[in-house]
Amino acid sequence: MQHTPEAGKTPRKPTPADLEVVGLVPLLEPFYRGAVVRGLMPAPLREAMETHGLTPRHGAVLPQLLAGRPLTVSEIARRLQVSLPTASDLVGGLSRAGIVERAEDPANRRRVLVSLAEEFRPPLETFIVRRTEPLLRALDGLSADERAGFLAGLTAWVREVQK
Asked: Rounded distance, CA 155 to CA 159, Å?
């Protein structure tokens, strides 16, 4: 999603303190390059993603399912802050690839529950461990207050980017 300034508002000029933060953002870009991500992904997961043309947006669904409790498409949409049709499309692609399974909710037959296919749980867990290692090391060095501030800042940034 491309972020554009709100109509009628002039974007504010960054302060020197803002520029210190802004200057760090491009240093994270290599962490998100496709080759880096693919290199950390276990073969079964990588092959399923590539064979079915799945994108990082599809991949964003998967960590939501690791806790083990099946989620509805609505819950996935809410967690990812995407529309219900977008979440449904993402789940559909993952389902066609066999990475997730869809089942009728026994408590409400109109709802569909989405869960991670058991064969993909170990490769996804391995990938998440590899992928989150730098972040977890950074978080380990923060106090509880610093962690809370970091989380608040990232959450606010995500909210602004997704407007």
From this structure: 6
Where the chain has pLDDT below 70, the residues are 1-8
For 30, other C-beta atoms within 10 Å of its C-beta total: 9
Of 6, 5, 114, 26, residue with least CA distance to 70: 114
Dist. CA 64–CA 40, nearest whole Å: 19
In whole angstroms, give the CA distance from residue 45 to residue 51: 10
- Per the CB < 8 A criterion, the answer to whether 13 and 21 are in contact is no
Write the DSSP assignment of 67-113 as a string of letters: TSS-EEHHHHHHHHT--HHHHHHHHHHHHHTTSEEEEEETTEEEEEE
151 CB-near residues (< 8 Å, 6+ apart) = none
Q: DSSP assignment, residue 116?
A: E
Whole-prediction pTM value? 0.75
